[in-house]
Amino acid sequence: MAGLREQWRRTAMRTIQERALDLFDERGFGAVTIEEIATAAEVSPSSVYRYFGTKEGLLVADEFDTMSAATLGELLDPADPVGSLVEVVRRYESPKDGPSDAQGDGRAEVGTAGPWRRVRYFFTEPSVRSAALAAMDRAAVRIAPLLEAGGTVDAAQARVLAHALTFGYFAALETWHDDGGTRPIADYVTEGLAPLRRVWSV
Amino acid sequence: MAGLREQWRRTAMRTIQERALDLFDERGFGAVTIEEIATAAEVSPSSVYRYFGTKEGLLVADEFDTMSAATLGELLDPADPVGSLVEVVRRYESPKDGPSDAQGDGRAEVGTAGPWRRVRYFFTEPSVRSAALAAMDRAAVRIAPLLEAGGTVDAAQARVLAHALTFGYFAALETWHDDGGTRPIADYVTEGLAPLRRVWSV
DNA sequence: GGGTTTTCGGAGAGTCACTGTCAGAACGCG
DNA sequence: CGCGTTCTGACAGTGACTCTCCGAAAACCC
User: Looking at CA atoms only, how far is residue B12 from chain A in angstroms?
Assistant: First the structure.
């Protein structure tokens, strides 16, 4: 099913991202060129653009972008979107893949390993932050119709609430980052978005 | 008080923006270079960058960015931020400066004149949209501490709610734009953000 | 398994947004 | 009018990003 091409494409993308992260961590985002990343990953600069579109795209690869509408619909409960969001975060933030104790030294720290390694740049590099905001916006556009299907709000309100959810998540993520990334992200989302729950309470 | 320099700077900025809008409307955002804008406005490209930073900055000149914290504090009521936002929009959207009937033909249309002329590009040019999102984000960062001072939420929640407000406004603005821009923006904000009011209701 | 089609990565050239630096000019002030 | 400050324009440079073309390898068909 997964052809050779598709398979190689995935591994290539992962290695490109890892090499890029290595270079970014070493010398800073701005001081690394696409050409250097391409050389380090043993691909052409063209491929980096084909895969990720922009330099920021190397860090902001939105999982929601590739997620089908059906899958998204399963995850999100229109009656309790905040709860659904927390659940998604909690599931994605599994101990194995999460940032906690990735090096076995008993300490969790932002940017050491796991899928959250890249998140650090969301809040330190302005251009990356902007790209992350754009990703949140795209997610909101896809979530809005699902909220509308819930029934209690119209299309315009669903659009507003979808943005409130995704960017509220972003804000919670920043608080998590500012805190040093030790406690689970899901906790920050739960606490930070608590006031928003009132919107959907009877 | 306003020295000659400051005065000339302001008029220069306005003419640059107007020339830029003219060119954008005529040939599209992507097809116009900074150099062409500079030539049309009879300034150097350096000045364009000095004034606006980026090409998108020509369209996304955020009023909140230049607004002092004190002024912002006066406008925003922590007990009813949604109402404050509606009030600010209503005041800014005065009939004279607004998009309504600017040509005296009895029709209001998006992008014909007034301060809302540039808003059209927020929702048609991806890079401009991204810049607008970044401006909303900056506004949220400034608003958050004011919400916290209200007393009912902590810092993390204030950050979430500030983002919910600013990006909710953005969403309402898009609905307004999609509708053709005939009805007042304040109406869209009022209706779109209505569910968010529940957050602050007793 | 051989021939055809389709797809995809690499190479190269080109555009343009954006960043510095620097010298000169205009302004503000005494 | 003279002096220090501030702003402007000119210039060169960097690098992100786009576009096009070509060869190779995978996918498809028999």
Answer: 28
How far is Cα A136 from Cα B137, in angstroms, rounded to an integer? 12
Residues of chain A in contact with residue B171, where contact means CB-CB under 8 angstroms, are 140, 156, 159-160, 162-163
Q: In this predicted structure, what is the pLDDT of residue A112?
A: 63
C-alpha angle B91-B138-B75 in degrees, rounded to nearest 5: 30
Q: What is the pLDDT of residue B97?
A: 46
Give the Cα separation of A108 and A99 in Å (integer).
6
Upper half-sphere CA count for residue A179 (Cβ side, 13 Å): 16
Q: Which residue has the higher pLDDT, A70 or B22?
A: B22
Taking alpha carbons only, the member of B118, B92, B200, B102 closest to residue B152 is B200
Instruction: Report, as an integer, the average pLDDT of B109-137.
Output: 88
Four-point Cα dihedral A117, A118, A119, A120, nearest 10: 80
CB-based contact A198 B201, cutoff 8 Å: yes
**CA to C1' distance (Å), from B37 to C28:** 31
Alpha-carbon dihedral A121, A122, A128, A133, rounded to 10 degrees: 170
For residue range A61-88, what is the model confidence (pLDDT) as tens digits?
887 888 888 888 899 999 999 999 999 9
Is B153 within 8 Å of B144 (Cβ atoms)? no
Of the candidates B48, B61, B55, the residue with the CA atom closest to the CA atom of residue B12: B48
pLDDT at A96: 54
Percent of chain B predicted with pLDDT > 90: 72
Q: What is the pLDDT of residue A61?
A: 84
Q: How far is C-alpha A110 from the chain's CA centre?
A: 14
pLDDT computed for residue B161 by the predictor: 98
Q: Residue B17: what residue type?
A: Q
| CB under 7 Å from strand C | A 5, 9, 12, 43-44, 46-47, 50; B 3-5, 32-35, 45-46, 49, 53-56
Considering only CA atoms, which of B130, B198, B175, B166 is closest in space to residue A148?
B175
Q: What is the pTM of this model?
A: 0.90
Q: Rounded to 5 degrees, what angle do the CA atoms B63, B46, B119 make?
A: 30
Q: Higher model confidence: residue B80 or residue B101?
A: B80
∠ CA(A164), CA(A170), CA(A173), 5° rounding? 140
